[in-house]
Amino acid sequence: MAILTITESRATVIAGLQVLRLSSIASQTLAIGAGPVSSTPFHPDTKLIRVHTDAPCRITGGRDAGAADIPLSANQTEYFDVTESFLANTPFV
After folding, report:
1. Residue 20: exposed, middle, or buried by beta-carbon count in 10 A (0-12, 13-18, 19+)?
2. Is 18 among the domain residues?
3. Is residue 88 a part of any domain in this protein?
4. CA-to-CA distance for 15 and 13, rounded, in angstroms?
């Protein structure tokens, strides 16, 4: 089964760079299939998320789920800021 893993974290600023803390707030595992799947809303303290997929997929998110449409390759990991323009309590698809 193909999966997408979302790890939620608080942000830390070191030397002007925003970095992910090793202690996560929450983690979600979503099965990648033929149709769309939504994550649960993020924790209010979540500032950054790490997204890893083991199969090709597309992700969307934000206030309007159509606002961001990002293709991911198999075994790709990306980090996203989920503050201000991307509400921390908005589901990620």
Report:
1. middle
2. yes
3. no
4. 7
Look at residues 93, 82, 41, 90 and name the one whose alpha carbon lies nearest to residue 63.
Answer: 90
Q: Count of CB atoms within 10 A of residue 68's CB?
A: 17
Instruction: State the residue range of the domain holding 67.
Output: 3-81
Domain count, the chain: 1
The whole-model pTM stands at 0.78
Look at residue 92 and tell me if it is in a domain.
Answer: no
32-88 pLDDT tens trace: 887 788 888 888 888 888 899 999 998 887 655 455 678 999 999 998 888 764 444
* CA-based torsion, 83, 20, 74, 92: positive or negative: negative
The token pair that represents 25 in the structure block: 């707030």
In a domain, 71, yes or no: yes
